[in-house]
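ugh ok so i messed up the first submission bc i forgot one of the chains. this is the corrected input, ALL of the components this time, i swear. 970 residues overall. if the numbers dont match what u have on ur side tell me asap before i send this to the collaborators (the ones from the other lab, u know who)
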Amino acid sequence: MHYFIGNLGHLFVIVSFVASLVCAFAYWKSLYATDTLKDSWQNNGRTAFYFHGLSVLGIVAVLFTIISRHYFEYHYAYSHSSLHLPSQYMISCFWEGQEGSFLLWMFWQAVLGIILMNTQRAWEAPVMIVFALVQAFLASMILGVVIPGLDFKIGSSPFILLRDAMNDPIFKINPEFIPKDGHGLNALLQNYWMVIHPPTLFLGFALTLPPFAFCIAGLWQKKYSEWIKPALPWALVGGAILGLGILMGGYWAYETLSFGGYWNWDPVENAIYVPWIVLIAAIHVMMLQKNKGTALKTSILLVVATFILILYSTFLTRSGILGDASVHSFTDLGLSGQLLLYLLFFTVASIILMARNWKKIQPDEKESTVYTREFWIFLGATVLCLMGFQVLMPTSIPVYNKIIGLFGGHSNLAPPANQIQFYSKFQLWFGVAVALVSGTAQFFWWIKMDKEKLKKEFTVPAISTLIIFALVIATTKIYDWSYMVLAFSGIYLIVSNATFLSRTIKANPGISGGALAHIGVGMMLIGILYSAGYSKVVSLNNSGLIVNKDMGTDFNRDNLLLFINETKSMAGYDIEYRSENLELRNKNGYVRKNDIDPTSDPYRVVANKDIVYQDKKLYAARDTFEVYPENTFYEIEMRKNGKVAATLYPRIQINPAMGGFLASPDIKRNVDRDIYTHVSAMMSREEEPHWGEMEEDTVKIGENFFVNDYVAVLEKVERIKKVEGLELSEEDVAVQAKIKLQGEHETFYAEPIFLIVDKNKPGVIPGEVNDLGVRITLMNIFPQTGEFLLGTNARQKDWVVIKALEKPYINILWLGTGVLMIGFGVAAVRRIRQ
Amino acid sequence: MKRSHIIAIVIIAVAIGIIVATAGDASTYVTFGQAKQMASEGNTTAIHVVGQLKKDSAGHVVGLENSIDKLSFSFVLVDDNKKEQQVLYNEPMPPDFLRSEKVVVIGGYQQDLFIAKKILLKCPSKYQEQKLDAGV
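and heres the new structure output, hopefully the right one now
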């Protein structure tokens, strides 16, 4: 038992909590102290924040040590890691649990706090007070302290011992009991994106704090407009990182989950989508305020709203309130009260602060004409806010039910039955509006426009948009009118920004960030239009089977049943299910289950023939090597004109501890479309197969016969000395036949055994060929004629059910994401330099 | 009227539109009885029904039928009012289906058959306190 390290970790948590409170107090004092004491209070605040930062680092180090050293006496290590977990995923264990993800968030904010403390001396005290308070709230989430006498627990500590977390009788017998292995990491999280997506996303969360802190400081210190300048670069970097984090999550879902896409409009996704959209709106009005000084009130509102929405999304995903509505919210840790307090504290405090100062803040310019940038940016920000609002309203349905329940009512409102359809039909038009507004806004960038000038400027881009649009529609055959409108707006957005870019890039490359970002958005809209709007099931199966007589045949089957080694055609490919595979642990590649024999260690297997993967011999027969036994990969070969175009390995993990059945797709990537395949059902290996009736053949050595339509030949029959699992005495006789079977792709051998033991007691051990679904029994031997009686049984062949989707032009979406990020980067560099 | 006023009115109109649309498209949690009632009144919106699989006295799931090609299946769900209903799902049976404690079906009636467009499973292992495997 390693008690010390857990106590140390817990100590760090308490120090980090107390230090953040001390920091806030000291900075508060420094604001109102006399000149002589001001500096010393400020120094105290600084020291306290460094203490806080160091203890956060300490918590991270301790927790990581516990996980990587496999101290399974700790609940966190036991429930999130295991001995066999590859080391690169050890780091994902860290944030699989809620406590670890709070810690990650705290860590980034501590880093940002230290940077701000050293670079923004003019704003230091008020900004750091906000930081310290936020950090205190976060630290309280992992405090794990029980208030004596009240039986009230604050926070959930990542350092609790297994015996305190689980009420298992074994701890009564032996309190020192330590499990030998951990529970393991959810297979879906064993993915490289899960190593980088959470830190990116939480850095994005953390980056919404500096603009909020500057804004609060500005209101508080009555520096109503000065806060914009230092806040803007942070908002830009935050917009980029948060967007990147969200898209990484989408990409992870696309590669790992099997719902068939990258975005599911699940409440958890929506909860982070809304603050990001509002942050983007905030960035635009902040830029307007900075350049023209005409959008101060809106800037304040949107910056505050972004941060509050981040807190609201935290509340939604972690309080358990989404329970029935979402497939992947965190489980409830009993923190809902604390989370609500966190949310309400900052909401109420900022509303009070805004209300008290509202009249003194310079009002926004209201009557700008259509020919100004202000008008279009305001319009764009409004569209973005409504876009977020549309998602926020239905996502909060469980919250309404809860509130109605609190007042004694009953509400049975459920989220929309088809989330994707519901949100898409609204968001599509918001997307159109965003594209049209931001495409047009670009024309008003520099010059004061009027009707005549606009006509001149507008002609070329308008004509090019129309030409490109016509070409695109003609070649890709979009006939749905709403998609046509979206395609048009996306192209318009790209063209207008490209026009702007071509004019300015030489003279002033620094300002190209905005145009680049907008081109990225245009590409993303078009990529989404094709990959989601024209995503189609290609495993369509009109087998003609009528499901229900009353309903007719309007039920198409979206899944395809593949029997092993039988070719079917799909999406222009010949497709064939070849084998079940395991992933190799020490080499890149897969090994067929039929080519290996198990050992007593499930992670080690013995090859029963040479292991060849992609024409390379990886192991020789009889070699012992390591595999990952949890995951089964189904080898699906796709051929075009007789040539192998791709071999896909969609994955299945049967893991009762993790909720049963986890399927991950494999994707054939083409330039113009992805083909996305996942397993939706497969045969159970636990059930005894159902063998058909036995057929009998009397054959001689070298004679051909048919087994389940495969050509078979009895090659030889010989006496053997040893039979596995049996003890043979001197008088016992064992004879083994070797039968060669010609399969579709390779030859197999069945080796049934005929025995006579204990004088005249006959026995048989049949030989099976898994790939062909046959079993051969050596029933009898006729020495006089040299003939052998063979019994053969056949069973249903191995099968797997797959679903395959085609995602056209999905690469435009990923490319657009890249362009958007570059645009953000260019813009942020420019603002930081200022 | 000033332009800012017009814009404000448009924004408010859109916001109200969103709220109305949300209320209109929101689904509801109902029982099979209510669902049947809705269907007979010509209401075809998809609804949520929460229930459990029908089991015999020995605890085995009964009434389960897999289609011959394994690509769809039907089962009997018992809702909170103990009403039994045959449900058809046009997807292969999820392997952890039989272990599920609670099943939420989203869909609606077509004649006497409930057609599920989506099913959500609640498996005990996901939600209950995990038992410690002392053997390992």
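quick check: The domain at 28-127 of chain B is CATH 2.40.50.140 (OB fold (Dihydrolipoamide Acetyltransferase, E2P)). that seems consistent at least. Chain B touches chain A through 57 residues (CB under 8 Å).
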